[in-house]
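Example complex used in Figure S2.
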Amino acid sequence: MNGLRGIKKEFEDTRLTGTLGNLTRREFLTFCTGVAATLGLSSNAAFRIAEAATSGTRPSVIWLSGQECTGCSESLLRATHPTLDTLILETISLDYHETLNVAAGHQAEAMKEAAMSANKGKYILVIEGAIPTKDNGIYCKIADKTMLAHVKEAAEGAVAIIAVGSCASWGGVPSTPPNPTGAVGVAEVLPGKTVVNIPGCPPNPYNLLATLLHFLTFNKFPSLDDQGRPLFAYGRLIHENCERRPHFDAGRFALEFGDEGHRKGWCLYKLGCKGPETYANCPAVLFGDVGSASWPVGTGHPCIGCTEKGIAFQKPIHALAEHKTVTPPTLFPRIMEEKGTGITPGSAALAAGIVGAMVGAGAMMAAKIQPSSEENSPDTHET
Amino acid sequence: MKTTAQPLGGKLLTKPFIILSILAIIAAYLLAERLIFGLGAVTNLNNGYAWGLWVAIDVVIGTALGCGGFVIALLVYIFNRGEYHPLVRPALITSVFGYTLGGLAAMLDIGRYWQAYNLFLPWYAQPNSVMFEVALCVTAYTIVLWIEFTPVFLERFGIKGLRNKLEKVLFIFIALGVLLPLMHQSSLGTMMIVMGFKLSPLWHTALLPLLFLVSVIIMGYAVVTVEAILSSAGFRRPYDTTILNKLSGIMWFLLLGYLVIRFTDLIIRGQLGLALSGDLNGNLFIIENLLFVIPVIILAKRANRNHPRLLFIAAMSMLLAGALFRINTYLIGYDPGRGWSYFPSVSEIMITVGLFAFEIMLYLIFVKKLPILDRS
Amino acid sequence: MNRRHFLKVASTSALTAIGADAAQAREPKTMPPKAVGMLYDSTLCIGCKACVAACKRANDRPPEIAEHHKTWNQGTWDTAQDLSGDTLNVILAYSHGNMSQKDSETDGYAFMKRHCLHCIDPSCVSVCPVSAMRKDPSTGIVTHHPEACIGCRYCVLACPFSVPQFDYNTPFPQIHKCQFCQHLQAKGEIPACCDVCPTGATLFGDARALIEEAKRRLAAKEGDTYEFPRGKLGSDRSTHIAKIPKYQNNFYGEREVGSTQVIYLSGVPFEKLGLPTQVTEHSYVSLSESIQHTLYKGMIAPAALLTGLMVMAYRNRDKSNETNSGEKK
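Predicted assembly (1088 residues):
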């Protein structure tokens, strides 16, 4: 606690300078709290994140690009809290990124080599794009070397490997059948290594930022699902948090684009929305920081399931989702729902009273009856 | 015979009569509630147990208790046992009330009573329906009962001419009065056959109509016996043991026959084991059939048949047996599944109590004011 | 004397006994020529309840809030627990264990759609005393006619599937049941539930063709891709492409209680979905009607009996009086 209070005090005293320094102390803490919240951590963690983000040594990051469209980087560029420059200039040391490199050609490659050998065993490797494996990976070459070789080489000295985007996670668009280049995800070419996957096309930049900062703060990755995806971001189905979910539950569906249901914002399931089989936090985090409904389903397009291997770019967009559910259907009536009014103390007492009275009356009557009649008396021999 | 029956006379507003009328008034209030707010307001009836206490007791058992008249008519007029004639009118009056009130209860139980006349419109007729037959038969029989009963009124008010004319054609109504109960009392059993798996195999058998018919004859005899003994005791008149003795012999054979049919059927169908399952169905089956066995044991000794108290106990046992058989077939053994449960509500029970109270009130009025009981 | 009496009474009741013995169910009824039907494939159902909502709209029934939901459900969410006067179609869920696997009997769950099965030999039609339940001779749709109904609720009891529902909380009640949206069919449309079903789990069509479709699905290899028709079998609607799931060995409705026009496919045993499986192949109606018609064939037996009774009553008329007065002391 003392340490935390110290940091807090330091921030209170210091107005941060540099790129990050364009933020006030308050704004910076807000950012860190936001990251902590994205990760589902406490506000105390925000201070530790802040500490990590402002500590003197910035970890080296090598960003490789394979078969990709740079959409993942583009989405990262549009992050506002923090901005990419804050991240790469204050938080990390982005030593190689083909799109953002200042250097070019041999110079760029040399810088990469230098960073990798200087930070051996300490740098973070981020990979964007799929890796072609067919014909020894000749379908993607950088600096006369296949992407496959680049990845294997860079992975050797990396402390952590993050595959960003669906292509790097499981092959993405390039792996769509018939997959002429034999494109696969990072994990597949690096057997035995832990690869954190941040799928999405593009992935939500905050999922990457949060994962990175978690690693920087705690020296480990957040917990992952069986596909290497951080659970904080990919633990729930889109369907679970979708703002259109009530329409699904009420059976109100848009049947075609522009119809009444579509205009009224009804559920897009029938248009092929993959929300019910896609794990991602899109409905909660949204895209582009422009306010509510700024995500595909919010704008009226069915989810294409971009974070899910085997769904995005493979299953037709109009094809119905296979309805997964992680919460049992508890609100459905059961096959045999108890119904009707059974016995109550009042009715039981009354019924018992009546039966008792009848038996009692019968017994009394029987007792009142003379044992024999006048005419036929000799029946006493059997009593 | 025409002259031996006389009104009992005496005070009408006795203490029991006042208690009965209070019960009847409570029932009338609850029935008003039923008519204003619907069946759900006073009953626990639901879409699983769509028939409850009223159908099982007021209608099915009520009319079965009303079969005393039919049984006596069968004996006196068809099998020519004239010696039972003094029992005809007391039995007839219970039949009249049993059926009239059974019909009234059915009218209150059906949801759309304002359309009840549809039962008699030929274009709505549905001869496949057992209930269609029962409804027509019960209605016809109730009318027949009142016609059979008319001589009592005519006698009371001294309308001789009409009475003699009626006497000439009465045999037609007597024949109808025997045929119609034969038809609908067996059909009350057939009614439950269509329930299929919803009715426990202990009661679901193709022989239900036969079992209902035989047991209703037993109940009819039992009603006559109880009535004869009670009216003798209540009005301090001598016991008609000669007549009751003979009746008992018939009852004994019928009971034995009933039990043979009942158990042979269960054994052939291989369902007897259910009786020993220890559940509610099994236990009530055992009680039901024990009640049938008790009179068989009592009446086995010929001497016991002259013993009014034992006769009374035997007859009561038969009545309870027949009633429980009907309750079991219509309510206990019937399980609609799907999570439904049912037990009659307090109001529902009070309406049934009130109806029976009303029936007893009418009986008291009639025997005191009309020539029904034989005063010899 | 006792024996003689017994024999006499027994001879009368023998009539009923013969009837009972002759209860070898009458000829089973066959499917009407233009029978329409529904195929509900539980494995395709996702529990979206679109069919429930559409049914309410099509049949103008109000939403229904379950008693134990009333504290938090202010009426915005239709949560009927089973069929009722206001709910003619309802989706129920079977669940077991941790409920993780759809259509798995253990540790799984499955959906069930409940409404009228439009039996080939419907109990409700047979038991109704006033022909308020009718089966269309051509399409086989079982319809209800409130103008005839007396509200006796025999249909509610007799239906093997507990489908007809009665309003208990109104002074002017009515029976309600699924009538296959016959008002929509009259306009050339299909039943609302089939129309909106997103996956084709509820499929409308010719009853015979639907049986063929069910058999096709059962014959297909598990895991193979299959084009599941949507809406109406044989229509030009887009199909739902999915894998053939693991089905039970047969479909429900072929052999149960004289067979039904609505049939079911499922991944879990049918009794788990609440469908009665301990039932006879012939309808219960055929048994009760056999008994009834044996006894009352052309009313010959009752008429003969009545004649006999009249003769005896007439003959005994005076004698009984004599005997009676003779016995009197």
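The longest helix of chain C spans residues 300-327. Residues 1-23, 322-329 of chain C have pLDDT under 50 and may be disordered.
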